[in-house]
Each structure stands twice: as structure tokens, then as C-alpha cells.
């Protein structure tokens, strides 16, 4: 086992112990899957398929139950992406437990995406989010605007 993986596993156990939750295999697997995909919010079905592909025997219902439970305990947040035609929720680790804020510009037509790397802009977005009471939603932000290719074609 790699040193990085061992540190991630210990972080998962520590998070569960802190909340006085028993570290069941389902909780550990779901949290580990979310930690491996820190940059994006994942639908429960994708977490389920990811676990099945790694040989974990788990049901989709269990994944949903664990995600809801982790959300209630403040480890996971649920997002409702406005551009998702199916209207399915997605889950990600609470920003304090995950990677720093990620901000992208996304075209609603072609779904092309570009990461925002301007530190001043990111800090301004953090301040605005905190001031408006959205501090828990700082992990991933999408700015929706049409790209040049799509506006040229209209």
C-alpha cells in the first residue's frame, strides 16, 4: 500500500471517529471514493459504479443511504447542478475536508470548461460567498457563459 493511500485511509477513519460514527466498510468506501475525486461533485450512481469496478460489493441503495448520512453529519454536501437535464443531485466532500476551491467557466451549450486560476478573482469569490452565507459551497464554482465558438455559430 502506498504511503499516500495510507494517509488518506487514516484521514477517513479520523473523520468518522470525530463524528462518533462507526467506520463501516460502506462509509469508508464512499468517503474514499469522494476523496479520490475531490475536484468534482459525483452522482451516487457514479460512486456506485466506481466502487463496483474496484471489486467492492455494495448496493446503490446503500450508497445513497451512506451519502445522506454523511451529509447529515456534515462530511458531504449535496449539489443540484443547474445544467443537468436529469436533475440528479451530486455529492462532494465538504470543502474544509477536501481540496481548495475550484472555479471554472462553463459553456452551457457545448459544455467546454476552463479553469479559473486568477488568485485575486478566486479570493474575491470566496469573500462574496462568505458574506452571502455560502461558505460551505466554496469547493466548486461554475461561472456559466457562452464560449466564442458557440456565440459565433448563433
Account of the 3D structure:
The protein is an alpha+beta fold. The chain has 6 helices and 5 strands. The strands form 2 sheets. The chain has a 3-stranded mixed beta sheet with strand order 4-3-5, with no helix packed on it. A two-stranded antiparallel ribbon has the order 1-2. Helix 1 packs across helix 2 and helix 3 crosses helix 4.
The major sheet is characterized as: 3 strands, mixed
> In what range is the share of β-strand residues?
5-15%
The helix/strand class is alpha+beta
Q: What is the ordering of alpha helices and beta strands?
A: HHHHEEEEHEH
What is the radius of gyration?
A: 17 Å
Shape: globular
Number of strands: 5
What level of helicity do the residues show? 40-55%
Describe the strand arrangement of the main beta sheet, using strand numbers.
4-3-5
N- to C-terminal distance: 53 Å
Q: Whole-number average pLDDT?
A: 80
Number of helices: 6
Report the uncertain regions: none
Amino acid at each position: 500500500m502506498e504511503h499516500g493511500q495510507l494517509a488518506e485511509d487514516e484521514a477517513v477513519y479520523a473523520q468518522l471517529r470525530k463524528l462518533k460514527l462507526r467506520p463501516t466498510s460502506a462509509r469508508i468506501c464512499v468517503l474514499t471514493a469522494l476523496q479520490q475525486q475531490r475536484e468534482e461533485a459525483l452522482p451516487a450512481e457514479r460512486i456506485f459504479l466506481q466502487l463496483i469496478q474496484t471489486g467492492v460489493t455494495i448496493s446503490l441503495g446503500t450508497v445513497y443511504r451512506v451519502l445522506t448520512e454523511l451529509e447529515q453529519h456534515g462530511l458531504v454536501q449535496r449539489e443540484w447542478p443547474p445544467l443537468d437535464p436529469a436533475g440528479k443531485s451530486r455529492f462532494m466532500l465538504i470543502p474544509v475536508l477536501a481540496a481548495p476551491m475550484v472555479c471554472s467557466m462553463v459553456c452551457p451549450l457545448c459544455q467546454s470548461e476552463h479553469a479559473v486560476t486568477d488568485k485575486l478573482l478566486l479570493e474575491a469569490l470566496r469573500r462574496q460567498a462568505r458574506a452571502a452565507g455560502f461558505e460551505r459551497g466554496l469547493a466548486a464554482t461554475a461561472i456559466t457563459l457562452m464560449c466564442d465558438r458557440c456565440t459565433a455559430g448563433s
